[in-house]
Amino acid sequence: MTITQLQYVLAVAEHKNFTLAAQKSFVTQPTLSMQVQKLEDELDILIFDRSKKPITITEVGKKIVNQAKNIVNEANRIQDIVDQEKGFIGGDYTLGIIPTVMPTLLPMFLKTFIKRYPKVNLIIKEQSTENLIKNLQDGHLDAGIAATPLEIEYLKERPLYYEPFVGYVPPGHRLYQQPKLKPEDLDIQDVLLLQDGHCFRDGVINLCKAPRNFQEEHFRLQSGSFETLVNLADEDLGMTLLPYLNTLELDEQKKEKLKYFEAPSPAREVSLIYHKSELKIQITEALRDVILGIVRGAIAFQDVKIVSPLNK
Amino acid sequence: MTITQLQYVLAVAEHKNFTLAAQKSFVTQPTLSMQVQKLEDELDILIFDRSKKPITITEVGKKIVNQAKNIVNEANRIQDIVDQEKGFIGGDYTLGIIPTVMPTLLPMFLKTFIKRYPKVNLIIKEQSTENLIKNLQDGHLDAGIAATPLEIEYLKERPLYYEPFVGYVPPGHRLYQQPKLKPEDLDIQDVLLLQDGHCFRDGVINLCKAPRNFQEEHFRLQSGSFETLVNLADEDLGMTLLPYLNTLELDEQKKEKLKYFEAPSPAREVSLIYHKSELKIQITEALRDVILGIVRGAIAFQDVKIVSPLNK
DNA sequence: CTTAAATAATAAGTTTTATTGATAGTTTTT
DNA sequence: AAAAACTATCAATAAAACTTATTATTTAAG
Predict the structure, then answer these.
(1) Which of A77, A90, A169, A251 shows the smallest number of beta carbons within 10 Å?
(2) Does the CB of B72 have a partner CB in chain A at under 8 Å?
């Protein structure tokens, strides 16, 4: 049994296809096939059921694949130990960021980070919390930035900042006269929402504590961008809620329609999340340092109340 | 990096000697030297400091060795998974037993075990609790039988039986007239003890709750066997305490000098202990089943009070 | 039902790697 | 100072991993 063989097994388990797995492993298909077979021979057990298309993993195979993940992870850790010893911060580092955080946060820290750690090849991917979690487990991401708490067994969460929710209320709206918003004022029926899959949407829904199964019949216009929501609100189609950082880039005219919540303001907790195995932890720590340093100035709110980002 | 290389590193770390490590790994010394070098080259860091004799492990080396242990252990687990799947119970299994348990317990279960699991090659080693713990961590033992609780972080303890302490009191002794013993009657100064290193000794000392630093000036005759202690007691040099199972093999004349404790009798907890990683867990479970089945008949005491085996 | 496409297994040959025996270079012990 | 113990290096060999080419098998398409 070799580590390489285990990596091949993992590739096949992931892609359910020897040819593709071989490509991803940068070897030819026979090489991969033979090595997987060799391992199966050595263990005298089948890991994959090749009779079905696409290939399936046998019951024992699943256990072996899990264990193989462990081993390969732990093996990668050795390079990690050496890097840490040398104070080396470099290599590929893949970071996932949720869409509602991406456009505001990324520009704030990216330049500083790549300047301070020029040897790190940062690969940034925008994806939903759901995919983020999956990819962190699979090892396709080294870390993610998402709204928390998620309370996933195998993930660590390190809060970066607390971002208050800010109301965007058009003049015609019933709440326009109020100086401050209160969560209980909100009616889910007239709050414009991001489309399904965005955790900010779920956060807002949780905040509104509306009936779980509210009807959306008369309102199908959901958007993926806050800009759209703001524009819809301006058309008197309802109010909406924005994360604080998104309010900074509004023009003066629109800023007048912002309404803050009474303290403690509802807020989302935005955290750096990564696998408990702490692979590439030095880079993760470096990233955290950079973001914390920059965010400290931008967000000064203290008295907030965290809203869960989960669709419970 | 290969698993083999990591195993070589572990062998060198253990024996502090490339030549010996090579022998233990069943390869020649150049093979092992070259592979270790190759790994060091790949990581671009020195694991061993060869300038000192005997060889020492560098600071990073220590971390790498630890991680290597993990990896090798986790890798062995894969065969384990397969064995479990197949219901296969076999292969080498090394069991350590403390000296005070060995002569009474081993004959009780050995025959049954090798008959029921003929494919297991049982290797039994008598050793002190201290060595048992060390060897379980190093992976030199698959399991051990010792007095518990030990509360070692990386070990699991599964109690096998509770063995009461029984007094052996010669007719001339001040306690001979009493029908039952009480712990508070005991005076550490006239209780004959096993020599240092036996945990039963520590158990008895704990029971006597004598001053921790009692003097042994006038009594240096410590022995490694209960037989000696009994004979010394017969010479009126004091009383002694025996584990219950040891009392079964005394002759009739000696049995008359046995004095049991009042309930709850002090007792030692004898457990099967093994590494938390649960390597070869099927064999361990099989062993436990056999011993439990046999011991159930032999030891029927219920109301006991466990004495710590540790030299606190 | 036949054919084409996709995919895995097999075969033969090549490259790479692991291992060995012999030996040279150290350090430690006597 | 010599012997012993130990590690590194070298050249040769055995083993393995990998490649290209090909075959076999399954799935999808016509």
Answers:
(1) A251
(2) no
